[in-house]
# Entry
Amino acid sequence: MLDKVTLWIGQAWHRLAEHHVGIYEILDYDSTLELCDAEGHKAVFKRFQKVRFLQDNVTSYQDHAWGDGEIFCNYICAPGVVADKYQEGERWNILISLRETKSRGDIEDIYIERTVIDGFTQQHEWRQTAVWHPTHRLRLAVVFPKERHCQRAILQIRRTNQTIELDHSAFRLLGDGRQMVTWETKNPGVAEVFTLRWVW
# Structure
């Protein structure tokens, strides 16, 4: 499934990069996947974005999701409410009504939390993030349960066809025994796709 998604996103991204006029830019993007048990049965995506609107009269924004398992076991967004959800190829689009009107220059914190069931049950797993809007800082993280840590992690960057093996500086032991693997970058290009793969 991952190869199909990556191909589909690559084609859509090429068109997006050529004609992109965004409704907002992302000042800070922090996306964490928490693996809640050693078997990978339950996982929670938590994403925080600090956005600055680039247009007047904005009343909604769009989220996207894809992957294995039951990817919408629970979905929370703030601010706003889900107005519509539909599938396009391997990707789901989620339309979120802000329930208020935003003007150019307004800054808003957007938080999304999504629970996945049976999405990370293999020894070799992955998570993927695509850049839809101009972004100043991007941080990706995976939190592993204390009973089962990550053994190896690599990051793939689609546009440059680059593969980076994450070294010890990306791995951190948390106070409760869980392990966090992180990677971040500044000013990734619109239409970039990052795939973090790991063995655990």
In short: Helices lie at 2-19.
